[in-house]
Amino acid sequence: MMSNTVTVKGIREGILFHISDQDWNENFQALTTLVKDRQEFWKGAKVVLDAGNSEVTSDQLLALKDELSGYDLALWAVLSENKSTQNAAQFLGLATRISRLESNLTTDFETTYYQGEEAIIFNKTLRSGFRIEYDGHIIVIGDVNPGAEIVASGSVLVWGKLRGLVHAGALGNETAVVCALDLQPTQLRIAEQISITPKRRGKPQPEMAYLCDGKVVAEAWNYKG
Question: Which one-letter DSSP state was computed for residue 199?
Fold first, then answer.
């Protein structure tokens, strides 16, 4: 998800906001507008600010921290190549170097675009206790084990076994779908409709779940273009 000055990515630790090198006031306004527009979806998340080369003062970071707190978001880390910004973040007790986060951004996630909509690709199996939330489509190349959770404002595609909890169309998008090579989630939700998957009979096959007349239905996933 993007504005003119701010890029947003869902990451393992929460949400990453990357700001441009433009004026801080423009960045601040764009970032807070995005947060306000998606406050229910992001509520309770931890935030990492990637300031790049921008110089941001401790007062500016404190104002951002207070603003995010008003939306029940917690600013806990600032990544920057600017020494003054690093010092400002450290003065406020914010993390400035997170090796695991930096690794995730370069190896676990890839952002792609389809007809103007943004998606995130997670290229490994999601194990129990792991949760992904993303304002867009989510693609998992691997299995989603029982106890794992996926929440997307768009559609969800799992190139593997889907056994965990999945919520597509989390912001009310009733056109969202859930596709998997083996669709057996513990709970499947599209928009506000919830479905508990019945015990499978017969061999697993690729399936697609979607809303039809207000109910979640599933059928063979046999895309022919």
Answer: P
**Phi (first) and psi of residue 93, to 5 degrees:** 80, 20
User: What distances in angstroms separate CA 126 from CA 105, 123, 131, 186, one per listed residue?
Assistant: 16, 9, 8, 14
Burial of 127 (C-beta count, 10 Å sphere; 0-12/13-18/19+): middle
DSSP class of residue 197?
P
- Residue 42 phi/psi, 5-degree rounding, is -95, 0
CATH topology for 110-220 is: Pectate Lyase C-like (2.160.20)
Q: For the segment 2-28, what is each residue's pLDDT rounded down to a tens digit?
A: 455 788 877 766 788 888 887 888 889
Q: What CATH number labels 6-102?
A: 3.30.70.260
**Prediction pTM value:** 0.51
The domains of the chain are located at 6-102, 110-220
- Taking residue 208's Cβ as centre, other Cβ atoms within 10 Å add up to 18
Residue in this structure with the two tokens 């003119």, named with its chain if needed: 4
**pLDDT tens-digit map of 39-98:** 777 778 888 999 988 899 999 999 999 999 998 889 989 999 899 999 999 998 888 876
